[in-house]
Automatic annotation (TrEMBL), chain A:
Protein localization: Cell envelope
Species lineage: Bacteria, Pseudomonadati, Ignavibacteriota, Ignavibacteria, Ignavibacteriales
Protein name: 4Fe-4S dicluster domain-containing protein
Keywords, alphabetical: 4Fe-4S, Iron, Iron-sulfur, Membrane, Metal-binding, Repeat, Transmembrane, Transmembrane helix
Record CDD domains: HybA_like
Organism, as annotated: Stygiobacter electus
UniProtKB/TrEMBL annotation, chain B:
Pfam family for this entry, one: NrfD
Regions annotated as coiled coil: none
UniProt entry tagged with the keyword Cell membrane: yes
PANTHER family: FORMATE DEHYDROGENASE, NITRATE-INDUCIBLE, CYTOCHROME B556 FDN SUBUNIT, NI_FE-HYDROGENASE 2 B-TYPE CYTOCHROME SUBUNIT-RELATED
Protein's name in the database: Ni/Fe-hydrogenase cytochrome b subunit
Keyword Metal-binding: no
Location in or out of the cell: Cell membrane
Organism: Stygiobacter electus
Signal peptide: none
Annotated gene: hybB
Enzyme nomenclature, EC number: 1.12.99.6
Membrane association type: Multi-pass membrane protein
GO CC, one annotated term: plasma membrane
Length: 302, 412
């Protein structure tokens, strides 16, 4: 109830704000990239993942990040704590208890979701992020000024910052192995190494179809939801799970794209510069009238 | 009739307070040095969950709001042409100029790659709220410097006195200043209106900044009308800031407080605060967020305090006539408004921000606090320096000089 009315209010007041501030210019809102029909994605089946963390290792190697040898990744004690991707590891796997059997805990790989309507891209002050044809959301080091607004904006709290560096600190996040692999038609490093095919790379639409099929075939195995299909306008990474996603630390998000409201306000205020210019003219008019009034009064005084 | 005219204050720069402030400023600068040598992580408590701390929440967000006195007095004095307020325009302008300079500095020290601060000038992202705020603030700082220029020309025309071999340049510099002054006088209205427009834009956009954080921000604060609330609060904090600073300046330079002007200003504050309060409560009622106030936690307490101390109590105070007879009373009521807006900005940017995977909550480090306090101390010191060395504060003069530079030009 509460949520419903809040969402409605959100919508109406956004409309009011943009209407009162000038024109409602939907036309301009974020049309910088075109979402390709054939954009790719990755389907993560958390019921298949065995938590071997080979993907963590492969990711580090692919991105020239320092890493321990691969056999150290067998150590399952890291699962005691919940970890997050950071500037030293762009993807991590967390483990959650399985309510039905202790034998098969649920392992969830976490990384940037490569949103279809990325909040980071909309927010970045210099436009350092770009959404590519294959779905990758890529960060450009030559532009970034290190303001960290993308971190404030991302609904999944993914971008990480190199706080320890005094010079040229980077924003670090999964880049879909864009430059070296997916751009050239190769698999992402994590997908390539996964020994049990828990993660599948493919056309996003095909993946959704496949996921639906899986849910239909094994209704007892999965909750009836593909996380990422609609969340914040859809994401390239998609998840299947046997348990409520919220219990697996997925954020509770609506279907509206994360940057939607702020972009509507923004473009309302700046609709073709009409509102600022109108305000300027209005103030100029007031100033002129008051000035004339003053000089008339002074003349009468004389 | 008694006339007010801006004069340089005849005072020594150094007092015990000034020395204390200097120590605070130096302390801040030391931590700043550490930040530049070892990185942001070495000085701050920021992490991947808490990308922004008090350098953004207080130094930038609150800093911009508290410098609003500049554009509100300009609107009142220049655009509405209420001449009786002319004596407060210069101090307010100086505060705004210093305030925004330090806002820019704070942004700079908080940027991971501060040496790329010019990037937004050539790399545009129209959908980014931060981009818009950045551009507006950048242009507004320039406008403020231009608005301040006439004070500089007034100070030096007829008194250019360069040392040593530069003496030869005295005449040309003087001439240049006079030309500049005349040019500025004719075009100033362009900048004054631009200043007000730019202020309205970025004061409100500063509120839009957190909208994109969506559910990461506590529903008590997260609302699509944030830009409006930010603009209204900025407008209502402008005059209290001017009053506070005027009373303090009068005290520290041993002048008679301008009780009448300040009381007139106070009359405007109550309605402004009322409008802000109405929107804040209205927003809460429409979104039904008052339900969050029934649970006691940091957010609900901070929200209530912000509302009570920052709006309701000062509103009541400004409605009483007793208060308006005493400069101290007005200063206290004003202080509450200032405190309220400061709390509001801290709440919006830090308290309300609940990152989804935080292991612990954010509290500023000694280093962050030192830098913030150091910057405030520096600002006060610079304010004092300018008030002593430039004609900022108005004092009563009894003979009314008609021509602008005649007296000073002749006396030297
Ligand atoms: S998950 Fe965050 S960082 Fe990744 S694309 Fe979406 S908004 Fe950007
Ligand atoms: S930190 Fe870099 S990438 Fe992130 S918003 Fe700022 S400039 Fe853009
Ligand atoms: S490599 Fe595959 S099975 Fe192993 S943790 Fe990663 S996703 Fe799971």
């Amino acid at each position: 109830m509460l949520n419903q009315s809040r969402r409605d209010f959100l919508k109406t007041s956004t409309l009011i704000t943009s209407a009162t501030l000038g024109l409602n210019s939907k036309s301009k809102a974020a049309s910088k990239y075109v979402l390709s029909e054939d954009r790719m994605g990755v389907l993560v089946d958390t019921t298949v993942c065995i938590g071997c963390r080979k993907c963590e290792w492969a990711c580090k190697v692919a991105h020239n990040l320092p890493t321990e040898p691969i056999d150290t990744y067998d150590d399952r004690s890291v699962f005691k704590e919940k970890r997050r991707p950071n500037d030293k590891a762009l993807t991590v796997v967390n483990e959650y208890p399985n309510d039905f059997t202790d034998k098969f805990p649920i392992d969830v790989k976490v990384q940037c979701m490569h949103c279809d309507k990325p909040a980071c891209l909309s927010a970045c002050i210099v436009g350092a992020f770009s959404k590519h044809e294959n779905g990758a959301v890529f960060w450009d080091s030559t532009k970034c000024i290190g303001c960290r607004y993308c971190m404030v904006a991302c609904p999944f709290q993914i971008p990480a910052f190199e706080f320890e560096k005094a010079l040229k600190p980077d924003i670090k996040k999964c880049d879909f192995c864009y430059k070296d692999r997916t751009f050239k038609g190769k698999l992402p490093a994590c997908v390539e190494i996964c020994p049990v095919e828990a993660i599948t790379y493919g056309r996003r639409e095909d993946l959704i179809k496949a996921a639906r099929e899986k849910i239909k075939m094994y209704p007892n195995r999965y909750v009836n939801r593909i996380f990422g299909e609609y969340e914040v306008g859809g994401t390239s990474w998609l998840y299947l799970a046997s348990k409520d996603f919220e219990k697996l630390d997925f954020p509770k998000l609506g279907k509206d794209p994360a940057p939607g409201v702020s972009e509507a306000i923004q473009h309302g205020i700046f609709a073709y510069f009409v509102p600022p210019v109108a305000l300027y003219a209005l103030l100029g008019g007031i100033m002129w009238i008051n000035k004339n009034k003053k000089s008339k009064e002074q003349e009468q005084d004389k | 009739m008694e006339n007010m005219k801006p004069k340089m204050m005849q005072k020594n720069f150094f007092t015990p307070t000034v020395i204390g402030l200097t120590i605070l400023a130096i302390n801040g600068l030391i931590f700043l040095l550490i930040r530049f040598v070892w990185g942001i992580g070495a000085v701050t408590n920021l992490d991947n969950q808490h990308p922004w701390g008090i350098w953004i929440g207080i130094d930038v967000a609150a800093g911009v709001a508290l410098a609003a006195g500049g554009f509100t007095t300009a609107a009142l004095g220049h655009i509405m042409h209420k001449d009786q307020y002319h004596s407060i325009i210069r101090p307010a302008l100086l505060t705004a100029m210093l305030g925004y300079t330090f806002v820019a500095l704070s942004v700079m020290i908080d940027l991971g790659r501060y040496y790329y601060i010019w990037h937004p000038l050539i790399m545009w992202n129209g959908s980014s709220v931060l981009f818009e705020v950045g551009m507006c603030v950048m242009i507004y700082v320039m406008v403020l410097y231009i608005e301040f220029l006439p004070i500089v020309t007034e100070r030096f025309i007829g008194r250019v006195n360069l040392p040593g071999f530069l003496k030869k340049l005295n005449k040309p510099v003087d001439k240049f200043l006079r030309v500049l002054d005349r040019g500025l006088e004719k075009t100033m209205f362009v900048f004054i209106i631009a200043g007000v427009v730019l202020s309205c834009l970025h004061q409100s956009s500063l509120g839009t900044l957190m909208v994109i954080a969506g559910p990461k921000m506590h529903p008590l604060w997260q609302t699509p009308v944030l830009p409006l609330l930010f603009l209204l609060s900025a407008i209502s904090v402008g005059f209290p800031m001017v009053i506070m600073e005027s009373v303090i300046t009068s005290k520290s330079f041993g002048l008679k407080p301008e009780t009448n002007i300040l009381a007139d200003l106070s009359n405007i504050i109550a309605p402004l605060l009322g409008v802000y309060l109405a929107f804040k409560i209205g927003d809460m009622v429409i979104r039904q967020t008052f339900t969050y106030l029934t649970e006691i936690n940091t957010s609900s307490v901070m929200f209530t305090l912000e509302l009570l101390i920052g709006i309701i109590i000062p509103l009541r105070l400004f409605l009483s006539n007793e208060i308006k007879k005493s400069p101290t009373g007005m200063a206290i009521a004003s202080f509450l408004v200032v405190l309220g807006v400061l709390m509001n900005r801290i709440n919006n940017f830090l308290v309300a921000y609940n990152p989804p995977y935080a292991q612990h909550s954010y509290f500023p480090s000694i280093g962050e606090i030192s830098v913030t306090i150091g910057f405030v101390a520096l600002e006060i010191l610079l304010f004092r320096f300018f008030v002593i060395n430039f004609p900022i504060v108005s004092v009563p003069v009894y003979s009314t000089p008609q021509t602008k530079f005649a007296i000073r030009g002749g006396s030297k």
